[in-house]
Amino acid sequence: MAPDQPTGQDGDGVEALLLGGRPGLTRVEVAAAVGVPVEVAQELWRLLGFPATADDDVAFTEADVEALQLAVDLTGLGILDDDSRSALVRTWGRSFARLAEWQTTLMARVAAADPDGDPTAQMAMLTGEVVPRVERLQSYVWRRHLAGAAGRLLAGAEATASDTTPLAVAFVDIVGFTSQSRSMADEELVRWIETFESRSTEVVLDHGGRVIKNIGDEVLLVADTPADAARIVHLLVSMGADDEDPFPAVRAGVAYGDVVTRLGDVLGPTVNIAARLTSLARPGTVLVDDGMHEALEDDPGLAWRRLPRASVKGYSRLQAWALRHRT
């Protein structure tokens, strides 16, 4: 049975609003309700990044029973197999933990905006108003991305379940980030990074690429074709070189070849080479590997300069090409 619905007038009430009721079950009872060993439930709980509980801690609700049942169902369908279960569930946990921290901070800021109001009561009210809408929006965003990923998978002549695919991989990072950030106030630094992330994402998406992740002062992106990747990094570097544009000065490294895709991330030598090329690039320049050069060397709109082979981590004689677009 589900516990009575809370009024939401205190911290426990906010938690209960989010969980669909006040905790009334132990982990032993949750596991028994689904018919799995308690060790299975404990592993799922840990992988999702939740705090540890003892067998007799009353910390769970019917929502936890449903979640565990869904995980068991997905295992039976082969989605959460032995090879992928830990990594996939851990990725879910980390991703949603970051979202939750950000969303809670936003709601707390709104709740505290009224100096005469009760922040806890305001937080409870916002929880009831905001969370259902955010939940529906997150489902929509996920389904949209799922449709896009399925479309890319089926776009080839033959659909494949392989984790390896040819991609152009690029790193674009802010020039002199450490030295510049030291002189910035916290709010100014946040705005600066936000400008970099939002503008770079806009360019990437508008020109056929996909942002894999932002890593502080750096963005990792991929494109299906070398031409798309070359265009994207050219635009980003040009924006950074424009004194009238608030976009920060950047440099870029791009490599083309087979890439291992895993849980939304990209791995393998092609990714490593792109990272090494970025470390070699001078401010406002783009360096690419042999794979990019071979694919685009006949493009009349591009100019090339072969650089001396360089010794970098993992590669004793890495061949780099300086790439620029002809005006």
From TrEMBL:
Keywords: Lyase. It comes from the Bacteria. The keyword Zinc-finger does not apply. One of its GO terms (biological process) is cAMP biosynthetic process. This is Adenylate cyclase. SUPFAM superfamilies: Nucleotide cyclase. Residues 168-278 form the Guanylate cyclase domain. One of its GO terms (molecular function) is adenylate cyclase activity. PANTHER family: ADENYLATE CYCLASE, TERMINAL-DIFFERENTIATION SPECIFIC-RELATED, PH-SENSITIVE ADENYLATE CYCLASE RV1264. Its EC number is 4.6.1.1. CDD domains: CHD.
